[in-house]
Amino acid sequence: MIAVLEEERQALAALDLDGLVAASRGKLAMCERIEACEPDGLGDDHRGLLETARQLNEINRRVRNLLAANVSARLDALSGGAGTYQLARAVNY
């Protein structure tokens, strides 16, 4: 899982869509394998690796959110809009 998360980070940095899709598929496959394991059967080493994977996933999530916010701001600047998700201002009569 850690290797897949590192690949995802590299794909995010390169804005590599194919790499992101491959990483997403890899993450889903690894989650299925991890879910098949008995929680009681995990040793301290495995729990440490899972915690590292959780932290890497959180970092990647933050990077994805920053990229999304950047794209949104750029689209707003290009379209002259104030934001896709903002409510329309009330009209005073």
Question: Explain this structure to me?
Answer:
With 93 residues, the chain is mainly α. It has a domain at 2-61. 73% of the residues lie in helices and 0% in strands. It is built from 3 helices and no strands. The chain has helices spanning 2-14, 17-35, 44-79. The radius of gyration is 19 Å and the shape is elongated. The model has no long low-confidence stretch (mean pLDDT 86).
How are the SSEs placed, and which strands pair?
Elements lengths: L1 H13 L2 H19 L8 H36 L14
Helix pairs in contact: 1-2, 1-3
Quaternary status of these chains?
Answer: single chain
Radius of gyration: 19 Å
Helix content: over 70%
Unreliable residue stretches: none
- Please give the alpha-carbon distance between the first and last residues: 59 Å
Note the total helix count: 3
What's the order of the H and E elements?
HHH
Find the structural class using helix and strand composition. mainly alpha
Task: Please state the average pLDDT score.
Answer: 86
The number of distinct β-strands equals: 0
Shape, principal axes of CA atoms: elongated
Share of residues in strands: under 5%
How is the biggest beta sheet arranged? none
Task: Give a short summary of the structure.
One of its GO terms (biological process) is bacterial-type flagellum assembly. With 93 residues, the protein is an all-alpha fold.
What tags apply to this protein structure?
93 residues; mainly alpha; 3 helices; 0% strand; elongated
